[in-house]
Amino acid sequence: MSKRLTRQESRELTRDQLLCAATELFAEVGVSGTSVEQIVERAGYTRGAFYGNFEGKHELVLALLEQRTQHELEEVQAMTLRADSFDETIEHLRAWHRERDRNLAGWLALRTELWLYGLRDPKLLPVLADRERRSRAAFAQALEQGFAARSVTPPAPVELLALILHSLDDGLSIQRVLSPADTGTDTVVDVVDLLMRSWTSLARNAATAAPDSTPDSTPAP
Question: pTM of the predicted model, to two decimals?
Answer without folding.
Answer: 0.79
